[in-house]
Amino acid sequence: MIKLSFESISSTLQTILRRVGFSDERAEQCALLFVEASRDGFYSHGLNRFARFVQSIDLGVVKVDARPELVESFGALERWDGGSGPGNLNAYASMARAIQLAQTQGLGCVALRNTNHWMRAGNYGWQAAEAGLIGLCWTNTLPNLPPWGGTTPKLGNNPLVIAVPRDNGEHVVLDMAMSQFSYGALENYQRRNEQLPLIGGFDSDGELTRDAGKILGSGRPLPIGYWKGSGLSLMLDMVASLLADGKATFGITADVVRETQLSQVFMAFATLAQSREAILSEILAFMKSSGTEVRYPGEQTIKRRKQSLEEGIPVDESVWQEIEALAKR
Amino acid sequence: MIKLSFESISSTLQTILRRVGFSDERAEQCALLFVEASRDGFYSHGLNRFARFVQSIDLGVVKVDARPELVESFGALERWDGGSGPGNLNAYASMARAIQLAQTQGLGCVALRNTNHWMRAGNYGWQAAEAGLIGLCWTNTLPNLPPWGGTTPKLGNNPLVIAVPRDNGEHVVLDMAMSQFSYGALENYQRRNEQLPLIGGFDSDGELTRDAGKILGSGRPLPIGYWKGSGLSLMLDMVASLLADGKATFGITADVVRETQLSQVFMAFATLAQSREAILSEILAFMKSSGTEVRYPGEQTIKRRKQSLEEGIPVDESVWQEIEALAKR
């Protein structure tokens, strides 16, 4: 791991993005979303994913100039088409629009179809919370999770984000996929030759196991809460594809680089600014009184962010070499 | 178990409800929500809970005449006060209002404070789906679930419902609490002296166990997906109490009969009626192609409902004796 400053990473990413056709302004925003993910410790959806993002542009899967276009407005609910634009910029624009709607109507919902991978899900929750609003958003994905009772991946892990703003900027942000352990996490345990802390899926004989390698081999990670997460994943896909009038998981190619035409939902809700902080701090204190190990969603994010900003953002050396090569091509 | 007709149960419940002060119309609606729960197989929140509901009226916790009153309107988002009215009637009225808002603005959200237990959560999802809309609702509860990393119950199990309408009336309705097994389910396993099918909580030594009795003893059931369900439960409580400007779990008495002043959120979303059924049937067929044991949320409900309507609604004999005694007091 090397440690780099926010500015130097951002500047390198912007160079690459401009070279593949981004305007200055969009290159800056797109780079920001990647760097913020790594700054907060979400490396797998930050810099580690940047080269693959550029590859998807080279392949024509992601169209650098496309922006979301309004398809239909129902009032507080709007349907937009992402035109196969960059997933993170599309998502950012959609949450910005949901925030705008919420500011006049109490809440706003943007359903977005035909978009690409939004990279780090939590970014759009932080975006709503930074605007002083509650954020709720989710995406569907390619089929990567077997439903409970099944053996082949027919559901997406469909990441879900809920964000609540705090006055001190240390927002409470839940960012969770419907699988108990992500493929990235399983690969890390396998590489370190470590058992998972809890059962995480089935082996090829259909037995529950803590062996990450066996789960990667069978392609059968567990949904959170078994039948419950399986059901929740299904509902998120149904609601996203219906509201967006877009593709559902069954229609999304099972190929990670070409995973495209996703459907997403972005919601923002106005909150009472006055009493908010008093309620939230009591809720958190009450939860923490259950034990010294209790953490709230986003608590570790804030710690990692502070550390990154003080010491530099940790970047895998091979990842950085690949990015530097892209800057020189 | 005895089997009774929908009409005979409903008529007995209405007699009791009128006697404790319900108007004819409200007695009919309230009885309907109880009987529908038992008809669909949710006995614990149907007839099995009716005597306790009457007790909470006798104690003055539930005020039979109170109806939700509008506190503030923001457009598509409204805040209502339940005035400690009957939880099921308050919830039904709130979802009805969210449906009305959605019909003009694409979506509607009613945040309700100061209400009582809504009994079977799924009822309000079915209500939205019957109106041809997507329904999303949840409630907070008294503290009954330790957060991940903690040992004492400082979160609620906060049931969450998502419902999607189908043309044939066999709606897809997810109705799930944030605990892996409900207290009712744990008690049933304990009574039958059976191990849980999967680990369901900690014993008093802090070891994960499939022994329902030990989990009831320690008061440490597991949240779904460990840290994930713990985080989701927290967010649902935060959002409900902030939107409703109502009580959060920390402020709700830890006493089942007096569990009151709950905060709830009801949302309804318009959907495309034309293409809807085609998308949904493909999503379901794709998921089911993963294995013959795969079920969608609500699938068993529809089977139980058909059976109940053909053969009569199963009611525990002692439960029915208690209800008949209430009708004669």
Observed structural traits:
two-stranded antiparallel sheet; 43% helix; alpha+beta; 11 strands; 329 residues; 11 helices; homodimer
Walk me through this protein's architecture.
Two copies of one chain form a homodimer. Chain A starts with a strand and ends with a helix. In chain A, helix 1 crosses helix 11 and helix 4 packs parallel to helix 5. Chain A contains eleven helices and eleven strands. In chain A, strands 2-3-4-10-5-6-7 form a seven-stranded mixed beta sheet, sandwiched between helices. The first copy, chain A, is 43% helix and 16% strand. Chain A has one domain: Ribosomal Protein S8, Chain: A, domain 1. Chain A has 329 residues and is an alpha+beta fold.
CATH topology value of chain A? Ribosomal Protein S8, Chain: A, domain 1
CATH class of chain A: Alpha Beta
Number of strands of chain A: 11
CATH-assigned homologous superfamily of chain A:
Malate/L-lactate/L-sulpholactate dehydrogenase, NADPH binding domain
Helix content of chain A: 40-55%
Rounded to the nearest angstrom, the distance between the terminal CA atoms of chain A is: 24 Å
Rounded mean pLDDT of chain A is: 96
Q: Biggest interface in this structure?
A: A-B, 76 and 76 residues
Order of helices and strands of chain A: EHHHEEHEHEEEHEEHHEHHEH
Shape-level CATH architecture of chain A: 2-Layer Sandwich
Low-confidence stretches of chain A: none
Please, how many domains of chain A?
1
Main sheet characteristics of chain A: 7 strands, mixed
Radius of gyration of chain A (Å): 20 Å
Count of DSSP H/I helices of chain A: 11
Portion in beta strands of chain A = 15-25%
Oligomer classification = homodimer
For the biggest β-sheet of chain A, the strand order reads 2-3-4-10-5-6-7
Which secondary-structure class do the elements of chain A indicate?
alpha+beta
